[in-house]
Amino acid sequence: AECPLPSSDAKAFSAKNFDYIIVGANALLLTILLRIAEAQPHCQVGVLEAGVFHRDDPLVDTPGELSLFSTRNGGLTWGNRTYDWAYVTTPQAGLNNTVIATPRGKMLGGSSGLNLMAWTRASQAEYDAFDKFAPGHGWTFKDLLPFLKKVENVDKQSNPFPGISSAALSNAVQTGPLFAGSAGPVNVSLNTFMSGDVFPWVQSHNALGVSTNVDPEDGNTAGVRNLQVAVNRATGNRSYVGYYCESVGRSNIHHLVGAQVTKVNLVKKGSLVTATGVQFLSAGKTFTAKAAIEVVLSAGVVNSPQLLELSGIGNSKLLKKLGIQTMIDLPGVGENLQEHIYSILEWQLKPGIQTFDEIRNNATFLQQQAVQYQKHHDGVFASTDSAVSYLPLQTFLNASAVAAQAKAIKKGLPELGPLTKLQKKQYSIQSSLILQGVPQVEVIQLSKGLIVPQPNVSYMSVLVGHQKPLARGSIHINTTNATAPPVINGNYLNNDFDVQTILQGLKFALKLASTPPVSHSVAALISPPPGLTDAQLISYIRATGSTGSHIMGTAAMAAKSDGGVVNGQLKVYGTKNLRVVDTSVIPLQLATHSQHTVFAIAEKAATMIVAANPAG
Ligand SMILES: Cc1cc2nc3c(=O)[nH]c(=O)nc-3n(C[C@H](O)[C@H](O)[C@H](O)COP(=O)(O)OP(=O)(O)OC[C@H]3O[C@@H](n4cnc5c(N)ncnc54)[C@H](O)[C@@H]3O)c2cc1C
Fold first, then answer.
1. Is cis: bond before 528, omega within 30 of 0?
2. Candidates 115, 151, 278, 557: which one to mutate for ligand 1, based on the most atoms within 8 Å of Cβ?
3. pLDDT tens per residue across span 365-385
4. Which has the higher per-residue pLDDT, 246 or 392?
5. Where are the catalytic residues (predicted)?
6. Are 360 and 72 in contact (CB under 8 A)?
7. Are 434 and 409 in contact (CB under 8 A)?
8. Is 303 helix (H, G, I), strand (E, B) or coil?
9. Distances (CA, A) of 552 to 38, 51, 490, 513, 608
10. Of 272, 336, 279, the residue nearest 307 (C-alpha)
11. Which of 595, 475, 579, 586 is nearest to 22 (CA)?
12. Catalytic positions, written as ranges
């Protein structure tokens, strides 16, 4: 049955007495809503979302609409304010002073309704590193695994990429249930349409010593893999509002859409600050909503720090300048921004190799596929790109070069930002992750032309992304106007390590494309132009770089004395009952797409919230 539309009646919402209020209906936050409502049926839980539910909207639901955007002259949701907050950074010196688009989903389901649907985990060592920022609260891989599994329902078709022995495959089939969930609300699957350049690309990886990873969810992410996506194979749709649909029947859950929270209402009682509710805007009018037990911010990595500052929680110097009364002086708010930076490459393929470009080049194929999707919910329109590899530095550098790199990072960098203690700790961990062979670079193959595709030509594009940059940026308000965008400054590519890592990855991608068998499919390198020196390639990276929309860390879980914003229970320091549960709390960048991890964090947060308020 279809999920009903949520309410937009602000007056009725405002008149209720809530126990819990949740700000931002991102896909994962709804887990908390549901779990609290299940555990404490006598409690009233309200969630406010600035955007709306785009129900039955193919631009959100149909995977192909996004994965084909480049070939259909689109960018149909990204940058479109009906779906996207459409933020931008300040001019980034490391990227030739370009202003970088920073999309964030503005809808029920948050950025999970806008994203590329990749459904991946980080490696065991990276989750274990989480625990070092808030010891004793259960943030290791072992602790998180039940939550990672709980959120997903993995449709395990056997679609092994080349390079897997039958022994490895049968082992993975046996161990699969140890790592894959089968009852969660997010449907996870593998693509059913594979472009002609995918298998050769995987085999060229194998030829260069990068093996095929049969079960990349088991804590070891290195290698090339068939990418899991949050797509429901039965409907062929993006899977992102499962929690919402599960929760709508409950009488103690109340959703309000079209409501932008402008402030958390705080009162100082003794040494702690208590959140009593929120102020919000709906259709131009201001309302309040009261929460007796807790307020949970899940407004996302950009808006959660913004709301903290608007509410008087942040660096007192900044707040004072804007005339905001400081409720809690917490200089870490909005700092510690970490983001994946990608560089793009593109090759023209030889005639006869079928890619997503076929949709652009062949009207008959387009028509066939449209019918196929409508009737059977599969084919190109139910698909995204498949081949992704995660590569440690050891793929590009010899052991002594890797050791030298790790040592340099451990020593620290001149670019240390304001949270010196936190960064030193992070760099020390990053150094050890490098030595352990934890992937630093992601290579995504995109079977289509992205730059300037020509008619009747097929392309292979590749994104090379640095997963663990040393750069740290920030998000801060510069006005008390809650509807004005915050100032986002990533400091992207502000240091040599970040630039060199992308350079190494880019050169490896060039090598891959000239290695058989994929080299037999390639007609010509289009971008960057062939034959560039390292210095010229660096200029190319700076001129064409973009981000992965995986910003993390802007309200980090870390010790307060290090510049942390939330503790191991995700509670904001100095507050009695205000938590942040979204990508902002991740203390250190992960070499993965972020949504699966954040869903698991939300499931864990839900258990912590219920346990902390046993009477409800
Ligand atoms: C373009 C793009 C592509 C991505 N691709 C992938 C991918 O393929 N795989 C992957 O794993 N991850 C991907 N990500 C990242 C992933 O989607 C996010 O990590 C995940 O959605 C969680 O993000 P978040 O914590 O910032 O919250 P969001 O999901 O952004 O949710 C925040 C919610 O709060 C609402 N909100 C904000 N401010 C207010 C306010 N003041 N009042 C009320 N509501 C408010 C927003 O409208 C939104 O619904 C991508 C992200 C983007 C933007």
1. yes
2. 115
3. 999 999 999 999 999 999 999
4. 392
5. 550 (proton donor), 593 (proton acceptor)
6. yes
7. yes
8. helix
9. 30, 21, 11, 32, 21
10. 279
11. 579
12. 550, 593
Residues 296 and 279: beta-carbon distance below 8 Å: no
Backbone angles phi, psi at 414, to 5 degrees: -65, -20
550 C-alpha to center of ligand 1: Å?
Answer: 9
583 C-alpha to ligand 1 centroid (Å): 8
Would you say how long the chain is, in residues? Answer: 616
| Residues 6+ positions from 135 with CB-CB distance below 8 Å | 568
The rounded Å distance from CA 551 to ligand 1 centre is 10
**pTM summary value:** 0.97
At 327-369, the pLDDT tens digits run 999 999 999 999 999 999 999 999 999 999 999 899 999 999 9
With contact defined as beta carbons under 8 Å apart, do 345 and 460 qualify? no
* Annotated binding-site residue? 261: yes
- Strand partners for 345: 462
CB 465 within 8 A of CB 480: no
DSSP state letter for 321: H
CA distance 352 to 349: 9
Rg (CA), the chain: 23
Query: Reduced to 3 states, what is the DSSP secondary structure of residue 544?
Result: helix
Contact 47, 33 (CB under 8 A): yes
Q: Which residues contact 529 (CB under 8 A, 6 or more apart)?
A: none
Lookup result for tokens 């100032």? 487
For every residue of 187-254, DSSP letters joined together read EEB--S---TTHHHHHHHHHHTT--B-S-TTSS---EEEEPPBSEETTTTEE---HHHHHHTT-TTEE
